[in-house]
Amino acid sequence: MLHGELPVGEPKWKQFASELDLAERVRFHGYLDAESLADLFSRCELGVIPMSADSFVGLPYKLCDYVKAGLGVVSSLEGECNSFLAWNFCVFAKRNNS
């Protein structure tokens, strides 16, 4: 399930899901109000933060949403996001690029 605004646009991601034969398994929800978001998260176990290091985002709003909902978090961000996750007793791994 994906919610919020997609960086390249929803039609491209829908096409990508279709090409991977995942169209029946991926749902695009767009922006949701607080009640709808809470309902969506109640059906999830994990929240993903797939942001590049050059995004200039330290602590994305979605991180707080995921923690509030009690979801596990997978994040590609380092810095403040990584520190926040470590402070909240989360486990994280860093990719070894060697």
Write up what this structure looks like.
- This protein is mainly alpha-helical and 98 residues long.
- A two-stranded parallel ribbon has the order 1-2.
- It is globular and about 40 Å long.
- The termini are far apart.
- The model has no long low-confidence stretch (mean pLDDT 78).
Which terms would index this structure?
two-stranded parallel sheet, globular
Order of helices and strands: HHEHEH
By oligomeric state, this entry counts as: single chain
Mean pLDDT: 78
Taken from the alpha-carbon principal axes, the silhouette is: globular
Task: Bin the strand percentage.
Answer: 5-15%
Work out the helix count.
4
Radius of gyration: 15 Å
Give the tally of β-strands: 2
Strand order of the largest sheet: 1-2
- Major β-sheet, in short? 2 strands, parallel
Distance between the termini: 33 Å
* Low-pLDDT stretches: none
Describe this structure in a few short sentences:
With 98 residues, this protein is mainly alpha-helical. It has helices at 10-19, 34-42, 61-68, 80-87; strands spanning 46-49, 72-75.
Write the layout of secondary structure elements.
Layout: H1 10-19, H2 34-42, E1 46-49, H3 61-68, E2 72-75, H4 80-87
Parallel strand pairs: 1-2
